[in-house]
Amino acid sequence: MAETELTKNNFESFISKGDKPVLVDFWASWCGPCRILSPVVDEIADELESKIEVGKCNVDDNQELAMKFQVMSIPTLILFKEGKPVHTMVGAQSKEAIVAEINKHL
Q1: pTM metric for this prediction
Q2: 15, 22, 24, 31: which one is catalytic?
Q3: Mean pLDDT in the chain?
Q4: Separation in Å, CA 46 to CA 32, 42, 71, 77
Q5: Is 34 a catalytic residue?
Q6: What is the per-residue pLDDT across 11-36, written as a single tens digit (0 to 9) for each?
């Protein structure tokens, strides 16, 4: 499953669509921990494709979105349900920890 690249133009509609929770990865190309976390997020997107949607938001290109959701450090993963943030994870996390948090909100 390909993650959706999120911008100010499609962010709100993406996090609000359907009844699946949405995981958004706030990242930047220069961020080492972001590059470490990216393949983990890709695996989660593939494995939980029927249960969640996954999007990626480059904070350098979308500073207003980062500010709106108080992303002070990257990588930051925010899980949205019905368009509202329900859980935030900051820093590189293990796949198991991320999946455990997602499962709490399914």
Answers
A1: 0.94
A2: 31
A3: 94
A4: 22, 6, 25, 16
A5: yes
A6: 999 999 878 999 999 999 999 999 99
Compute the radius of gyration of the chain from its Cα atoms. Answer: 12
- The CA distance from 38 to 81, in Å, is 21
Q: Are 87 and 105 in contact (CB under 8 A)?
A: yes
Q: Which of 15, 34, 37, 98 is catalytic?
A: 34
